[in-house]
Each structure stands twice: as structure tokens, then as C-alpha cells.
Backbone:
């Protein structure tokens, strides 16, 4: 479990040291010797081609798979009413038999808190993602974007130290996707959450993150890393973004061709 | 292209119309007409002397026969006895089958350990157990219940097994991610609700199967509808046999209707 490792350094929310990971059943590691630190409140996007190990890395941070070497530490004060990390998957993975509010409550049911407090958290989380009105809707009555908002609310409700997002907007149409990116930026500004965000979309990574890390190679390592200082509000149209995107694309292209 | 496609589409629409609108008799008219023709033919065969009434009792005498059975107390006693066997056997067989099916689906070790045992026992028809039922329990309600349990156990085992195996692995991962570690923690909040449609389909099949087992189990002498049918047929009172047959059909219809209402309520989240 990611929380049982050594505490991250002061200021670091996630500390990954010489991490090696294998796909289940595979002999060669997909990641080897990876070092990465995510500061408290930082938004780090992990970029990379399909199959490079981005999602596997996220699962290791979530404690869903054990590293074959190295370690992952999440700095979280142990508490009965919150989880150290929470995950948002590419498919919303809502429980079809529960309405939106009950889906948000799913993570809270494993935590220790009075029902009233859980109810309050559900309401707050749904309001935060702009779905307060749709609390009683079943997943099948929600659009793809709304379902993903419920999934984000479910993750936020457990008050995680770190929010892990695995291509959360990958299955959405272009317009919804852009709207959701804006929503995520707003939610992040409101909550100050540390976010580790996996995507294969260079523009998405550059529009959202404070730092973009490109994973490439076999086993994968960090091929390029850039800190972004452009103002979040106007990034999409910023000329520097194109230049950065070209830089990432060039490295990604060379590595994939190699 | 369009000129060719349009008439074809219109043709499909017409066919759909014909299927969904049975005509002037409407939704109830045709079934009632069909039933009436069936009863008329049934009545006609003995009336025209094509078969003696002892071999095919006409439907017109059935209401009076039923009332005689009610007044004599045979009908209620038989229904009560059979319903008791049915409900107890159904409850044990369904619970046992579902529990073992779920456990096997979740535990590869248990699945592997029981795979040959299941392969040997499953094809044995429930009725083949009657000799052992009599030897173990005697000619009494317990042996009827035992036959019914066997009759529904396998259906529920396989339905539950398949339903749990079909639960998306992504839901297991989701549960892990939110702290539901281990199958026991996932069972009530994730696995059973996700598998419920398949499990309930098995339960419903079992509801019908159990009635067959009830009759068979009572034919060898345990009190109930099956026993009453055997008594009546040995006296050539075939009209009583038919009354008991229709009683079983009615009881099954009621049980199935109640179950479907319950199922629809449990699964109202489905589209």
C-alpha cells in the first residue's frame, strides 16, 4: 500500500523512488528506475504513448499493484474519515444500480463517519462538480460528461491527499472534453488538490498541468519534463503552448520511431 | 440510392405495424378467442365420443369437480402440503445454489476443487434421487423437500456462477481503489448487485423447475397435489387429476407473477 512506505519529504505529496513495475505475467518491467516527486497542490500530467506504463504507474500510486522494485510514498496524515488517494478512471465506472448521490457515497461507506457527515460530503461534492440538481438520477439517465463528473465527485468525497486521474476525459467527445478540462481547472483552484493526471493527449496535458512529464522507452523512463508557468486561464490560445506541444511531439515521435 | 432505400424502409415499417397491431380484436381479443377454441375442441372430443370422458374429462365438469374437492377438504390440504414442500425446498435449493455458485465464481481454488464433483453430480436428474430420498428420509415431507432442493440447486448454482463471472473486472478494481479489499468486502456493495440480473434469472427458472419436482416428489406418496393426482388416477377420476394439474398451473402463475414484480422492483435501475 502506498501509504505504508516512507513519508514523502516536507512539501512532497507523492514521492516515487527507483520504481520498477511489471504488467501482470510479463517478464520485462514496463517501468524501471523511475524517480518522480509531486509537490503538495501540484498538478502533474503524465504523458506517453499507449502501453508505455502510465496507467500502471498510477495504479502503483493508488496501491492497486505492488512495485517489483523501488517505492511509492504518499504523504497523508492517517485519518478514519479520508483516503490518502482516490482514483478517477477513464470509464466513469459508476455502479448502475445506485443514483448519482449513492455513487458518490460509495467511497464514504468504507470510512468511519456519521451518516449526516457523509450526506453533507455527498452534497458538497456533487455541488462542486455542478451536479447538485441531478443527485437522484441513475447513471443511465446521465450523459457521458455528467457520469464523469459523478466519478470526480466520488473521488473528491473521500477527501484524498492526492487525486489520481487515468485519462478521465479520454472517452468523451471533443466539446465535452474541453468543457470538462475547464471544470477540472476550476475544481482544482477551488480545492487546491494535488493531482496526478495521465493522458496521451499533449494539448490536454499542457492546458491543465503545472508540470508535464513524458514517459517513453522500454522500460519507460522520463524522456522530457517541462514546468509550465503560462496563466491557466488563457493557455489554450497561448503561442508558447504550440511551441511546447511541438517539443513534446518531437520527443514522442523520435522515441516511438526508435 | 434513396429511391431504392425508401420503399424498403416503408416495407419494414408496415411489417412492424402488422406485428404490433393484431387487428380489431385488440390485445385481449385474440388470446380469449384462442382459449375459447381450445376449450371448445377439448369439450367436443369426449362429447362427440372420439374419446371416453374417463380418458379426457371435458372442461365443463371441472368447476364442479374442483368445488367438490374444496368442500371435501382434499384440495386445501393438498395445496397447503405442496406449497410447504415447494417453498422450503425452493428456499434451501436457491440459497444453497446461489451461495455455492458465487463462492465458486470468486474462488479459483474452490472452483477447481469442485469442477469434477459438479461434472459428475450435475447431469443426474433430480428424480433419480427419489430412491435415496426415501431411504434417507422415509416417505415424508423431508424427502419431497430434498427432491425439490436438488431440482433447483444446480440451476441456481450455474446461473449465479455465470453471473458473478460476468461482473466486469473494472468494478472489482474500482472497489479496491475505494478501500473494499477482498471479496468479502465487495460482496454486498458491488458483486451481488452487479450479478443480480443473472442470479434472479436463475431463481425464476428454478421457480418453474421446483413445481415439476414437487409433483414428482409427491407421486411416491408424500401428501400433496402429486399424491392426490396419483390417488385420483388409480380410481380413474381423471377430472380430479385435471383439477390438480390446473391448480399447479395457477399456483405457478401466481408465484411467477409475484416474483416478476419483485424482480422488476429490485432491478428497476436497469433500462
Residues:
Amino acid at each position: 500500500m502506498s501509504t505504508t512506505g516512507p513519508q514523502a519529504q516536507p512539501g512532497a505529496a507523492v514521492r516515487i523512488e527507483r520504481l520498477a513495475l511489471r504488467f501482470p505475467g510479463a517478464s520485462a518491467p514496463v517501468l524501471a528506475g523511475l524517480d518522480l516527486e509531486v509537490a503538495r497542490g501540484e498538478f502533474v500530467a503524465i504523458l506517453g504513448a499507449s502501453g508505455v506504463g502510465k496507467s500502471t504507474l498510477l495504479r502503483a500510486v493508488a496501491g492497486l499493484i505492488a512495485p517489483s522494485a523501488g517505492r511509492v510514498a504518499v504523504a497523508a496524515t492517517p485519518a478514519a474519515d479520508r483516503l490518502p488517494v482516490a482514483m478517477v478512471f477513464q470509464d466513469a465506472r459508476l455502479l448502475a444500480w445506485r443514483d448519482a448521490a449513492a455513487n458518490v457515497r460509495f467511497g464514504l461507506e468504507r470510512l468511519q463517519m456519521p451518516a449526516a457527515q457523509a450526506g453533507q460530503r455527498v452534497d458538497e461534492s456533487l455541488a462542486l462538480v455542478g451536479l447538485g440538481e441531478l443527485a437522484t438520477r441513475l447513471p443511465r439517465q446521465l450523459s457521458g460528461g455528467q457520469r464523469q463528473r459523478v466519478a470526480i465527485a466520488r473521488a473528491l468525497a473521500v477527501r484524498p491527499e492526492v487525486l489520481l486521474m487515468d485519462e478521465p476525459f479520454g472517452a468523451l467527445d471533443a466539446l465535452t472534453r474541453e468543457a470538462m478540462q475547464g471544470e477540472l481547472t476550476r475544481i482544482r483552484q477551488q480545492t487546491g488538490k494535488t493531482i496526478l493526471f495521465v493522458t496521451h493527449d499533449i494539448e490536454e496535458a499542457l492546458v491543465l498541468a503545472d508540470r508535464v512529464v513524458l514517459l517513453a522507452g522500454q522500460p519507460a523512463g522520463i524522456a522530457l519534463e517541462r514546468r509550465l508557468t503560462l496563466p491557466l486561464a488563457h493557455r489554450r490560445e497561448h503561442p508558447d503552448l504550440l511551441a511546447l506541444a511541438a517539443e513534446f511531439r518531437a520527443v514522442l515521435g523520435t522515441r516511438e520511431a526508435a | 440510392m434513396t429511391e431504392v432505400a425508401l420503399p424498403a424502409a416503408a416495407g419494414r415499417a408496415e411489417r412492424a405495424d402488422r406485428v404490433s397491431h393484431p387487428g380489431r380484436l385488440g390485445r385481449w381479443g385474440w388470446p380469449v378467442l384462442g382459449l375459447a377454441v381450445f376449450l371448445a375442441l377439448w369439450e367436443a372430443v369426449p362429447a362427440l365420443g372420439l374419446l371416453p370422458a374417463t380418458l379426457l374429462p371435458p372442461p365443463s365438469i371441472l368447476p364442479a369437480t374442483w368445488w367438490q374437492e374444496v368442500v371435501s377438504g382434499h384440495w386445501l390440504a393438498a395445496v397447503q402440503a405442496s406449497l410447504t414442500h415447494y417453498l422450503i425446498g425452493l428456499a434451501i435449493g436457491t440459497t444453497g445454489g446461489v451461495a455455492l455458485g458465487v463462492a465458486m465464481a470468486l474462488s479459483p481454488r474452490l472452483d477447481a476443487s469442485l469442477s469434477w464433483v459438479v461434472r459428475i453430480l450435475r447431469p443426474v436428474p433430480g428424480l433419480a434421487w427419489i430412491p435415496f430420498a426415501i431411504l434417507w428420509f422415509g416417505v415424508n415431507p423431508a424427502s419431497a423437500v430434498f427432491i425439490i432442493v436438488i431440482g433447483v440447486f444446480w440451476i441456481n448454482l450455474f446461473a449465479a456462477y455465470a453471473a458473478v463471472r460476468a461482473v466486469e473486472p473494472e468494478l472489482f478494481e474500482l472497489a479496491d481503489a475505494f478501500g473494499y479489499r477482498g471479496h468479502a468486502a465487495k460482496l454486498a456493495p458491488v458483486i451481488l448487485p452487479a450479478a443480480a440480473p443473472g442470479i434472479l434469472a436463475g431463481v425464476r427458472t428454478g421457480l418453474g423447475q421446483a413445481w415439476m419436482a414437487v409433483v414428482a416428489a409427491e407421486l411416491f406418496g408424500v401428501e400433496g397435489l402429486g399424491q392426490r393426482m396419483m390417488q385420483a388416477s388409480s380410481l380413474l377420476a381423471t377430472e380430479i387429476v385435471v383439477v390438480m394439474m390446473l391448480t399447479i398451473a395457477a399456483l405457478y402463475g401466481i408465484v411467477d407473477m409475484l416474483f416478476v414484480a419483485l424482480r422488476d422492483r429490485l432491478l428497476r435501475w436497469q433500462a
